[in-house]
Amino acid sequence: xxxxxxxxxxxxxxxxxxxxxxxxxxxxxxxxxxxxxxxxxxxxxxxxxxxxxxxxxxxxxxxxxxxxxxxxxxxxxxxxxxxxxxxxxxxxxxxxxxxxxxxxxxxxxxxxxxxxxxxxxxxxxxxxxxxxxxxxxxxxx
Length: 141
Fold this sequence. Notes:
Blueprint: E1 11-20, H1 21-31, H2 33-39, H3 42-54, H4 56-76, E2 90-94, E3 100-104, H5 108-113, E4 116-126, E5 129-138
Antiparallel strand pairs: 1-5, 2-3, 4-5
Main location: cytoplasm
Cofactor: Mg(2+)
GO molecular function, one term: magnesium ion binding
């Protein structure tokens, strides 16, 4: 219909997180690869290792932004860090354009898709801070 109006998707949840990068550095220095394996999903871990090899500071910033993204996302979906949410089940990867994308693994993926529509994430870092903002849409009816 020519006069039909499309309304914007309803927001189901939002979440944000702000973290001092030096806190991530301390955890990484204390726990090393165990910390990375606990926090990052498989594709994130690959990207972290490549960045860290080129520039250790850039690797830490990557780790901090991904940590913040997981915190923000967990708040947006209302779970916090309770099952089925787990650090490594939510990844922030990038589209070819550079846009950050939420990629989920089961069982979180199945739980999420039964309740919500698309998820959106934005990440940034500056000086000693990393920040993420997440927004999830309501499931289309």
